[in-house]
Amino acid sequence: MRVALLVGFSGAIGAILRVSIGEVEFGFGDFPAATFAVNMVGTFFLCFLSAGFIQRLWVNHELQTALTTGFLGSFTTFSAFSMETVSLFQNGAILTALLYVLSSIFGGILFGNIGMNLGRKAGREE
Prior knowledge:
mainly alpha, transport
């Protein structure tokens, strides 16, 4: 029960931060820059922490779960990505939708790979 409460609390913080960033206008036309940004940042940090760095920070598994599953899980959002993509297609912004999908997939892989590599290095350093 304690883990569920920690995940819920940290998830609420992640969701509030995600909504706050979503309200910022980035000025990229129809491109959903806010969702793209939080998903890339969240992917980087989840991979960074999961690659070994988090074990150097905390021994407490409950706090690790709260940070990764709770905070980062609610901060990043596949559902918003999907909804925004469908909306772009329905509004005729086909090229923007395709750019969003491709940049999200390849950007996620790129940021995830960078995070994993840096997390492994940071996890090994003494």
